[in-house]
Amino acid sequence: MPDTSVYENPLLSRYASREMAENFSDDKKFRLWRKLWIALAEAEKELGLGITEEQIAEMKKYAEDINYEDAKKFESEVRHDVMAHVKAFGKQAKSAMPIIHLGATSCYVTDNAEVIVIDDALDIVMKKLVNVMDKLRTFALRYKDLPTLGFTHLQPAQLTTVGKRATLWLSDLEMDYIDLVHLKKTVKLRGVKGTTGTQASFLDLFNGDGEKVKELERRVVEKMGYSRVYGVTGQTYPRKFDYNVLCVLSQIAQSAYRFSNDIRLLQNMKEVEEPFEKHQIGSSAMAYKRNPMRSERVGSLARYVLSLPVNAAVTASTQWFERTLDDSANKRIVIAQAFLAVDSILNLYLNISENLVVYEKVIAKHIAAELPFMATENIMMECVKAGGNRQELHERIRVLSMEAAKNVKQEGKDNNLIDLIRADDMFLAVRDRLDGILDARNFIGRSPQQVEEFISAEIDPILAAHKGELGAHGDVRV
Fold first, then answer.
1. Is 153 a catalytic residue?
2. What is the CA radius of gyration of the chain?
3. Helix (H/G/I), strand (E/B), else coil: 242
4. Residue 44: partners with Cβ closer than 8 Å, 6 or more residues away
5. 3-class SS of residue 152
6. CA distance 261 to 272
7. Per-residue model confidence (pLDDT) at position 277
8. What is the predicted pLDDT for the residue at 287?
9. pLDDT in tens, 117-146
10. In the Cβ-directed half-sphere of 10, how many Cα atoms lie within 13 Å?
11. Could you please report the per-residue DSSP string of 82-143?
């Protein structure tokens, strides 16, 4: 049972997946610290320092066995988390105590571990992002031919299709994917740099042999599974990297926010609806309501993520000289919570996008209410082809349109413009062809072809590259 007497972060208790929560756990962080200490000791031994196989073996024995109580006790004494864990590790691996953290500064473990955690979190985000894209691809192709009202300024404009509109959401995510791929390519470890980034301590250890220091860093980074390392740093890796990370997360949140707003509007129109479970309650007072809870939650979480890049920008801007510590407490909160929130958003996006309900008859009803106005140009042109006077036809359609608009707006009745046109002898030439002219499919342009072409050229290659990761489903925890 949770401790209900203290605040509990809802990102953990209500929203984010266990996978993302575990990625930012203390267990993962401190195991990475120990893995980094082992990699450093191994590389130092390989390059000639007096470290024994027995010391390394003992470190490996306790690599996964974090003695948290000892670490907590030591931290209360020394007020330094890294040194507390050095002491705790050394209490277990007694023979290795003299060489744990040899030549290193705290940021050797903290910063390298943070980069790895962020990199792994980006992988989780990537997998969920491409799965959302896959769901929207299926939806867009399914409804590529289904006409629907398009809106500009939230006013009825020309027709589009339900599938074409979905490609707008998909296009946003494609841009996010491209930025995410680029970000992944820029990931570098801080490496083995020493207190102010000069590698002076390691140069002393190797008696001034700079080549060995360079090789030490290369080997350590390789042991941690990486090949890229920052060429120069102060005590920390550049905090602009955190800003870049939060910008990409913000972009994903922006895309999800836009999607969720569209779904909320469409649900108000009763055209498209997010999933609503059998026993779900929309309102405690109004039993008939079907509120777009999932989409609203996406917007709520996205708004939080959108606010975070400026925080990281301030942190990156205030790194005095080789380092200042005012980033530390901030980063503990901001980075993890940004990923937890985006993880939550993508879980919801997955759930919504694979379970959208489309009400085709409602969509057709709304088209019927507006299409007569949109079709007047087509009707007029057909009459001109039959010998009519364009100016006279235009004036007559204007008059009839005003009459129909009055019927809709002032009388609250259906749009009767087509009935008025059908009864007017000026339009006798098209009277028998009005139903064909008014076929909604005549007004959707190349929407179906655009859907197919866009998906084939731009989306399918992305999904093919992630074929083994597809098939995920989103869940709503509460």
1. yes
2. 31
3. helix
4. 51, 99, 102, 103, 205, 216
5. strand
6. 12
7. 59
8. 45
9. 999 999 999 999 999 999 999 999 999 999
10. 4
11. HHHHHHHHHHHSGGGGGGTTTT--HHHHHHHHHHHHHHHHHHHHHHHHHHHHHHHHHHHHHT
Query: What count of Cα atoms within 13 Å lies in the side-chain half-sphere of residue 14?
Result: 10
CA separation, residue 97 to residues 37, 300, 351 (Å): 11, 49, 50
- CB contact at 8 A, 131 and 353: no
The predicted-structure confidence for 232-259, as pLDDT tens digits, reads as follows 999 999 999 999 999 999 999 999 999 9
Indicate which residue of 13, 80, 283, 307 is catalytic.
283
Output the pTM of the full model: 0.92
What's the mean pLDDT in 284-310? 84
Joined tokens for residue 163: 């599938």
Q: Smallest Cα–Cα separation from 159: which of 373, 389, 354?
A: 373
Q: Are 29 and 113 in contact (CB under 8 A)?
A: yes
Percent helix, strand, coil in the chain, to 5, is 70, 5, 30
Look at residue 475 and tell me whether its pLDDT is greater than 90.
no
**In this structure, are residues 341 and 253 in contact, taking their beta carbons and an 8 Å threshold?**
yes
Strands 272-273 and 155-161: unpaired
Q: Give residue 392's identity as a one-letter amino acid code.
A: E
Query: In this structure, which long-range contacts are made by residues 140-143, counting pairs with CB atoms below 8 Å and at least 24 apart in sequence?
Result: 140/164, 140/166, 140/167, 140/170, 140/451, 140/455, 141/451, 141/452, 141/455, 143/358
The interaxial angle of helices 162-185 and 447-454, nearest 10 deg, is 20
Q: What was the pLDDT predicted at 284?
A: 45
Give the model confidence (pLDDT) of 439-459 as tens digits: 999 999 999 999 999 999 999
- DSSP alpha helices (H): ranges in 143-239? 162-185, 200-205, 210-223
Sequence letter at residue 460 = D
Beta bridge partners of 151: 156
Cα–Cα distance for residue pair 477/14, rounded to 1 Å: 6
What is the phi/psi pair of residue 298, to 5°? Answer: -60, -50
Q: Is 471 left (phi over 0), alpha (psi -120 to 50) or beta?
A: left
Among candidate residues 5, 76, 153, 227, the one labeled active-site is 153
Name 148's bridge partners.
160
Cα separation of 268 and 151, whole Å?
15
Burial class, 392, CB count within 10 angstroms (exposed 0-12 / middle 13-18 / buried 19+): exposed
Altogether, the residues listed in the chain come to a count of: 478
